[in-house]
Structures are given as structure tokens and as C-alpha cells.
Amino acid sequence: MLSYRHSFHAGNFADVLKHTVAASILDYMLKKDKPLCYLDTHSGCGAYSFQSSEALKTKEFNNGIFPLWKRADLPAPVARYVEQVVEFNAQSKLMHYPGSPSIARQMLRETDRMFLFELHPNEFTNMRENFSGDRQIKMAKKDGLEGLVANMPPKERRGFILIDPSYEIKNEYDLVVESLIQAVRRFATGTYALWYPVVNRQVINRMERELKKSGIKNMQLFELGIQADSAERGMTSSGMIVINPPWTLKKEMQESLPFLADTLGQDGQGFYRIETLAAE
Ligand code: SAM
User: Fold this and answer.
1) Which residue range forms the structural domain that includes residue 154?
2) Which residues face 93 on adjacent strands?
3) Cα–Cα distance between 11 and 6 in angstroms, integer?
4) Taking 90 as the threshold, does the pLDDT of residue 146 lie above it?
5) CB atoms < 10 A from the CB of 130, how many?
6) Which residues touch 196 (CB under 8 Å, ≥6 apart)?
């Protein structure tokens, strides 16, 4: 039984990192005049209200998008992401958060395609309503990791794959790594971004070790933490592991992550990591 609901967390510091990285990758890949396939393995419903009882219960957006959206001194990659959130609202007040499929949809061109996977029945129904009638989008109420492997390589031979699991199942970290390795075997030139939460650092260290051992090349890691690692506080940090990143991504994150760690970090504990897990 899936119990995770992104509506409790939309627009938090983890979304800021995830969607800044995703927008940066898309911006680069969409500069080339060739169709792109975007695949979101764990889409969520694509639109969240900051007025919902879930959002108001946690108010995680107060340490995410809210302190950023009116600032004039944002690093350019963060400003690009914030522009997408503002465009989704189409008004001067911040009422809604777009989620990954809506950010991608706003950025994609007429020649591009999207695959969205979402397993939770209610989230899937909401997603279908949010994107109904859009002929560029294929949606499936299926396991996203199976959907990922089954659809590689895409016919465009150019793809950006976002893997954003809720990590609710005990062996999900292992499953994610296994599926990612299988997908890369089928489509080695794709760009993949895997999001991870740091609740228990040892689990993430193991994930990094497994990925390094896999022999996958050209893999970078970008992490943003708001508090030092802790066994008691839940998620204190989160990251994106990117395979075949655009050559511009590292520089853009070097520009963005110190600012985000400073702005969103709590009690001066904000930190970031930028590391190459595997060379080109
Ligand atoms: N990617 C979204 C975004 O950035 O706006 C947020 C996604 S949320 C972190 C994870 C989603 O994955 C939840 O909506 C959950 O219902 C869904 N989910 C959980 N297990 C899944 C699976 N095996 N396949 C597809 N979706 C799944």
C-alpha cells in the first residue's frame, strides 16, 4: 500500500534542488533542434496547492520555494527554475506548485514527447485530469521502474529520465539501482537523474558504492543539505545523481548550491556536495 503524498512536501528544499537540476538539464537539452523524450518514473499528480490541508500541515514550502521566489539576487540556474514556478501560477501570488511533469511540460517543444508513470490510484487520476487531452503525453498507472526499462531506448534516441521514488518499500533503494543499471544498458547515451533523500547516510553511501561498482560512466552527484546528518530528524539533505549530465550542469550547480545552502540551511548547518562518481 502506497501512503506517500507529495502534497505534504511540494516546494520544499528537496524539490528546489530536484527541479533546479531538472530545469537546468532540460534547458540544455532543448537547445538542440532534435526531438527529446522526457520520462518521469514517479510523476506525482503534477500540481499542488499551497492552501491544501496537507501543505498547510507541514508548511515545508516555507523552507523551500517561498524564501526564493521574490529574490532579485538568485543565481541564474535557480532563477530559471523559479521562473517555471511563477509561470505555472500565472498571477502575482504564489498559490500552486507545479511538480516535475508540469515543469517539463512548460519547457518542452511541440516535437517532444513525455512518458509519465504514477502508481497511486488517486495521484494517477489527478494527473490524468491535469494533463487530459495533451497528445504529447503518454500516462500509465504502472510501476515506473518497470516502465523505464520497458521504454528504453526511446525512438528519438535523445532522452531525459527523472527517477524520483518515494522510497516507501524496504528494498526500493536496491530496486532503483538495479533498474537504473538495466536502463543504462539499453540506452547508454540517455541523461538520467536519480533523486535520493538522506534520512540514513549509510543507505546513501551504499547506493553510491553500488552505482560506482556498476561501471556506468560519466556520473555526477549534487546534494543540498539543510542540517547536518542526523538519525533523529528525518530528511536533512537530498541529492541528485546524474548520468551523462550536460557539460554545463556542474558549473551551474557550483553557482547555485552554495547560495541554496546559505539561504535554506538551518542554524548555519546548510551544506552541499558536488562530486564526480564516475569519469566520462
Ligand atoms: N516527481 C514528482 C515531482 O517532482 O513533482 C514527485 C513524485 S513523489 C516524490 C513520488 C511519487 O511516486 C508519488 O506520487 C507516489 O505515489 C509514486 N509512486 C510510488 N511508487 C511508485 C512506483 N513503483 N511507480 C510509479 N509511481 C510510484
Assistant:
1) 6-278
2) none
3) 9
4) yes
5) 20
6) 167, 173, 204, 207, 238, 239, 240, 241
Residue type, position 178, single letter? E
Q: What are phi and psi of 104, to 5 degrees?
A: -65, -40
Is residue 219 a part of any domain in this protein?
yes
Q: What is the pLDDT of residues 45-54, one digit of tens each?
A: 999 999 999 9
Annotated catalytic residue within 15, 40, 112, 164 = 164
Inter-CA distances, 209 with 147, 161, 184, 213, 246, Å:
25, 21, 17, 6, 23
Query: pLDDT value at position 203?
Result: 96
**Residue whose CA is at the smallest distance from ligand 1 atom 17:** 42
CA of 176 to the centre of ligand 1 (A): 13
Catalytic annotation on 40? no
The whole-number pLDDT of residue 170 equals 84
Phi-psi region at 141: left, alpha or beta (left = phi > 0; alpha = psi -120 to 50): beta
Return the C-alpha cell found at 116: 509519465
The pTM of the full predicted model, rounded to 2 decimals, is 0.98
Per-residue pLDDT band for 63 (boundaries 50, 70, 90) equals: very high
User: Could you give the number of structural domains in the chain?
Assistant: 1
The confidence score (pLDDT) of residue 244 equals: 98
What CATH code is carried by the domain that includes residue 216? 3.40.50.150
